[in-house]
Amino acid sequence: MSGPALVQAPRPRADLLLRDVHVVDPRAGLDARLDVRIRGGEVTELGAAGVLAPEPEAELLEGRGRLLVPAFFDPHVHLRTPGQEHKEDLDSGTRAAAAGGFAAVVAMPNTAPVLDSAPLLRSLREAAQREARTAVGLLGAITMGLEGEQLTEMAELRGAGALGFTDDGLPVQSAGTLRKALQYQRLCGGVVALHEEDPALARGGSMHEGEVSAALGLGGIPTVSESTMVARDAAIAGYEDARVHFQHLSCAGSVEAVADAKDRGGRVSAEVTPHHLLLTDEHVRCMDTRMKMNPPLASEADRQALIDGLRAGTIDCIATDHAPHARDEKEVPFEQAPMGTTGLETAFAALYTGLVRPGVIDLGLLVARMTAGAELFELEHFEVAPGRPANVALIDLDTEWVAGEQGWESRAENCCFGGRRLRGRVLLTLSGGGVAYRERALEPMAAA
Amino acid sequence: MNHLLSIEDLDRGAIERIVERAARFAEVSDREIKKVPALRGRMVLNLFYEASTRTRSSFELAAKRLSADVVNFAASGSSVEKGESLKDTVLTLSAHKPDAIVLRTPWAGAAELVSKWCSAAIVNAGDGKHEHPTQALLDVYTLHERLGAIDGASIWIVGDVAHSRVARSNIIAFQRMGAHVTVAGPPTLIPRGIEALGCDVRYTLAELGSADVVYALRMQRERMTETWVPSLREYAACYQVNGARLGPRQVLMHPGPVNRGVELSGEVLDSPQAVITAQVEAGVVVRMAVLYELLAGARPSGLPPASRGVADAGGPREIRARSRDGGAAGAPDAPSVPDVAGR
Predict the structure, then answer these.
(1) Better pLDDT: B306 or B193
(2) Does B132 touch chain A (CB under 8 A)?
(3) Measured between beta carbons, which residues in chain B are less than 8 angstroms from residue A211?
(4) For residue A45, is it within any domain?
(5) How many residue contacts between A and B have a Cβ separation below 8 Å?
(6) Does residue A192 lie in a domain region?
(7) Which superfamily, per CATH, for B7-132+283-326?
(8) What is the band of B310 on the pLDDT scale with cuts at 50, 70, 90?
(9) According to CATH, where is 3.40.50.1370 located in chain B?
(10) Catalytic: A35?
(11) B133-278 adopts what CATH topology?
(12) Are residues A287 and B86, on separate chains, in Cβ contact within 8 Å?
């Protein structure tokens, strides 16, 4: 591959002393109040709280016990570039990521044009090297134009820097085509990430099929539309011994199918979104188009199964599926609205508020699942450890804020958590050693 | 009541109030001059995104009998075909300051959405497969006229429930009025989860004889090409309401237009049990009652508050006086149509 897997615009290297921060890094086994020194964009020293001496050339930040975590990794976002910059672009999308505590995101190739050739992918990587605030990884398409027929030049795409492949937004409907892509993976490597949906079952649907869709007269998408395809593709991947990643699981049946595949030793992984972990089809009753996404919000039983899967490790990581749309595109009747919700700026706070504070999962597990995406794409995970680049997020868990009340960093405002009171505000995000986001309310850092 | 978006918004008392008012307006329809000045100076805009003859003309007649000005705006042949969004169309038409917009669209929730974009009272005249509240009101009115009371009645709604906004509104309205509702039809056309609305579900008409009222839904021919049912012939064999299935004391309803020979056989359609033309007749008076309820208390847009008294007093008094003269309604307090306070 030419160059690094993740790219971002160069930023000044940070020199910081984070004094008395509560470091939670489950992989490093850290859960303690510490001083963290960052010099030249690298974590250089950890010490007991209040022990490390300030240095004149470094800013001093008083943590006062606030949370410091390895910055999050989002394996599933839509940055809408090229071609749909009225929804989002590399700058606004990665600003949103940084504001949510993410140091890296993986962008989907369903742009206009589709990222289905090496020159396109290369030019987008170059644009990210100029514009992206956080690290960006790119997936290439599995099939030309996402049409599900002709395979892309996967080896060339890998050579141009594709982290892997996906037709996200659409399923690879033909089992034969998917099988060929998985065979080709032996040549070029790269994870194949799958959006699972059976068009014959999902057709005409705009929400989860159940009591709410029946009451609203909206076409329903049955959960078997997703779960049967997960089971099918897990079987094909097992047959080819291929590495596949199942995107945005939304229902109990899919969790079972992934668990079965893992039990059989399949090289499969899976992600789940904050909205599927926190919301159900009951939230669609008001026909708020921010609640329209694909896969749709399912039943409470499905939500519980997703939480159980996340706890058990059947679901490996959390992904936002950040899907920005312009206001006028969403200000239409529900059936006409495009699918998708933004999620980068609210992911941590929504999950902390909805799952950690009520005691459903603990903070360490949330941090682990919000950072695990890196390993799934064969990248080194972020860590708060000496000698590692500073990819960290400082978070105030006590601040309550209303999502979207002060606007969004994203160009889009179609966030399903918009208007909710959330706990946990990201104050500072370092990505690749540079400051990618700093909350305005964060007190000025005193020089020592 | 600021809008009529969903039958869900009306409790039993509100439905009864509209039905009672409609009964008083029925007298107007029998006059030589079928008009009262209750909504003089008000403008009603019919905004229709779907082909509709009977609903639109029913609203138009209702508005005209109340002396409102009516503007019809059909989506075909308009700016909508040039790509204008619903919101832009509504904002543009709102510049004419309509007092009410009667809206028919193929999209669920559109009426509620439009109610947030403009100050006019919105009447949902059908939003996709979601709701058709004035149809439910006129059906309640028709049954009320026919049966006296709906309480305890068993009502079967037969046919394509999945694609029917009429079914959804009527399941709710009939139950609110104390009826027991059963939906019956092919399993492909009964939406999963519909029983959560409180109705029973049957896939055959074997027990149809237990119904007091049989409400047949329109079976659209395109449902066959979409393979919801194998053939209309088989559909008719299994689900057609005909002389063999309909008992002599059962009331037959249909929202129209009827596919003669598909969901209904000619014999039952032409029988005295069918109240289908009564439903059409009820449509006008019920829609008069709805428009009256929404607009009679409100100040006509564009007029200063000072002229309000004249406009308000004119309408109701007119009705009161004529009703007394004619004595049609019978009930002593019937003529006092308006109950303006508290709306």
Answers:
(1) B193
(2) no
(3) 193, 196
(4) yes
(5) 70
(6) yes
(7) Aspartate/ornithine carbamoyltransferase (3.40.50.1370)
(8) very low
(9) 7-132+283-326, 133-278
(10) no
(11) Rossmann fold (3.40.50)
(12) no
Contact A334 B85 (CB under 8 A): no
Q: Which residue of B has its CA nearest to A284?
A: B109
- Other beta carbons within 10 Å of A275: 26
Residue segments in chain A with a per-residue pLDDT below the cut of 50? 446-448
B326: left (phi over 0), alpha (psi -120 to 50) or beta: alpha
Same domain, A35 and A82: no
Same domain, A121 and A20: no
Of the three residues A352, A376, A400, the one that is the final residue of a domain is A376
**CATH number of A33's domain:** 2.30.40.10
User: Out of B107, B129, B130, whose CB is closest to A336?
Assistant: B107
Chain B residue with Cα closest to A287: B109
Is beta strand A268-272 parallel, antiparallel or unpaired with respect to A244-246?
Answer: parallel
Give the confidence band of B28 by pLDDT, cuts at 50, 70, 90. Answer: confident
**Which tens digit of pLDDT belongs to each residue from B206-236?**
999 999 999 999 997 766 667 889 888 999 9
Q: How many domains does chain A contain in total?
A: 2
Residues of A in contact with B115 (CB under 8 A): none
Catalytic-role residue among A321, A328, A396, A398: A321
What is the per-residue burial (b if ≥16 Cβ within 10 Å, else e) of B50-67?
A: bebeebbebbbbbbbbbb
Q: How does pLDDT run across A266-313, given as a tens digit for each residue?
A: 999 999 999 999 999 999 999 999 999 999 999 999 999 999 999 999
Interface of A with B (CB under 8 A): 209-220, 222, 287, 328, 331-336
Helix (H, G, I), strand (E, B) or coil at A270: strand
Confidence of residue B328 (pLDDT cuts 50, 70, 90): very low
Q: Specify which residues A151 forms β-bridges with.
A: A143
Does B188 touch chain A if contact means CB atoms closer than 8 Å? no
User: Which residues of A fall within a CB distance of 8 Å from B110?
Assistant: 333
- Give the residue among B135, B92, B141, B139 at the shortest CA–CA distance from B117: B92
- Please check whether residue A4 lies inside any domain of the structure: no
Closest approach of chain A CAs to the CA of B202, in angstroms?
16
Confidence of residue B156 (pLDDT cuts 50, 70, 90): very high
- Domain assignment present for residue A63? The answer is yes
d(CA B247, CA A411): 63
What domain range includes position A273?
70-376
State the CATH number of the domain containing residue A260.
3.20.20.140
Q: Which residues of A touch B9 (CB under 8 A)?
A: none
